[in-house]
Design goal:
Strand content: under 5%
Order of helices and strands: HEEHHHHHHHHH
Shape: elongated
Strand order of the largest sheet: 1-2
Helix content: 55-70%
Radius of gyration: 23 Å
Structural class: mainly alpha
Largest sheet: 2 strands, antiparallel
Number of helices: 10
CATH topology of the largest domain: Four Helix Bundle (Hemerythrin (Met), subunit A)
Number of domains: 2
Amino acid sequence: MDGLRPSEIHWIVNHYIGVSGGYLGDFSYATHREFYAAYCDLAIDPEEYPGTTTRQRFLAVLSSADPRCQAAIVRGVARRFPAGSEVQRTPEAQAKLLAFARRCAQVAAVKPTSPKVASELVRQALADAQSLLEAQGPTSALDRVHTALHGYLKAVCRSAGLDLATLPADPGITQIFKFMRENHPALRDLGVQEEAIRKVIFSLGNILDALNPLRNRGSLAHANDQLVHRDEALLVVNLTRTIIQYLDAKIAID
């Protein structure tokens, strides 16, 4: 995840928002203090940062923030100072600004997917997961990626005419994946090194089995006292996206 470069921070402050007499845009001390909660959903008090002007304190806040917070601040700038509000804030300049925010918010190495076989529930869960990932981090997205994968596996089986009624009532992702692995026609031909690839796919079942306790006892799906840490949650998000992308590609080829 890449944060803002010094040249980008300089552009945001001096070329997009604009500075006059050491002051940033039309910020007063009061409106600058209110900006972070009202437009960025962040609990930041700029008076705790070095500087005597709104420009200096905004620079201190933005430069010291982690990439996720930088993304929230940049999106807040776009809302507080919309395109057309000053001559330099053109639609093109705002698009450049929001591109900075998207890059800072891109925490997952595996890009979000839009599977070809998916129900409305799956699409909504994936969209929710991406929003939570950008706004609050990967731990908050765990429950939604689990829901997306569960729904996706069901949709894949139904699209292939596989009867889920042969499984126990309300089957989990491990049971559905095993059923699909054994019966879906797209997974019969695994190309060269088939035996090794089949072992990899078989091992995915163990990964999916581990997702259940992570979701139930380590995510925000329930009132858990301890949550999965950021790096481990990001691992789960990336693995889930990888599994969906692989299966979707195989099904498309088939």
